[in-house]
Amino acid sequence: MQNSLLRYCGYRDYFLFLFGINTGLRISDILPLRAKDVRNKSQITITEKKTKKVRIININEILKAEIATYTISMECDDFLFASKKGNSHITPTQAYRRIQKAAEIAGIENTATHSLRKTFGYHHYKKHGDLAILQEFFSHASISITRQYIGITQDEVKNNLTDFDLQQPGGPK
Length: 173
Description:
Elements lengths: L1 H8 L1 H13 L3 H4 L4 H4 L4 E5 L6 E5 L2 H10 L21 H15 L6 H16 L2 H8 L4 H8 L3 H8 L12
Antiparallel strand pairs: 1-2
């Protein structure tokens, strides 16, 4: 899939997808980023446009390597997702269209730029199983909102707990 997306969508659009699913940031917080904001860093510090909260986002090793490759020929003040028209970044509408195109090529339906954020949350939950952390990250009022947001059903939670048991330390196994 990666080669198809790169071939038909271009590296900028592939990088936008990869950046979104690895950071969980809103598209409105991703698009204004410049090379200097992410190059040679292990964390990104932003002030969210929607909530005005300061966020520190860790950059994983996969994304670090991709950032190094993607920004190698960029000047420090270049936008990561520069528009070909003018001296700015692409708009959220343009980002939406590019993500739609990539999803179409990958055979994925019902995708939008916000799907990148939800995908981050879903996979974070699957790996760590901690809805409270995601609730805080997404600034949700309750865990049930977070569960609904990332598409975790009550049956999935129940099934996850079905075979769970604890044994007394030193007791029979």
